[in-house]
Amino acid sequence: MRKNVGSNDSVMRILSGAALLGAMYWVESPWRWLGLLGIAYLITGILRWCPAYALFGVSTCTPPVDE
Residues with Cβ < 8 Å from 17, sequence gap 6 or more? Predict the structure, then answer.
């Protein structure tokens, strides 16, 4: 499993995942269950691999610098 999520993207996924999960406790409507999407954001941010990126051949990682 090759990493395809860059460091900035990873941080944003982790923060937004935590916010979505937290929203489940603050929002009092049927929409609160959308907060479960935060689990997917947390997992992809921590593992730095996104199956959707892999499917479409996208990568936000910086290419290695050749010296």
Answer: 37, 38, 39, 40, 41, 42, 43, 45
Q: What is the pLDDT of residues 14-67, one digit of tens each?
A: 999 999 999 988 888 888 888 999 999 999 999 999 999 999 999 999 887 765
Alpha-carbon Rg for the chain in angstroms: 14
Tell me, what amino acid is at 35?
Answer: G
CA 67 to chain centre: 31
Nearest to 17 by CA among 51, 43, 46, 41: 41
Tell me the domain boundaries of the chain.
7-56
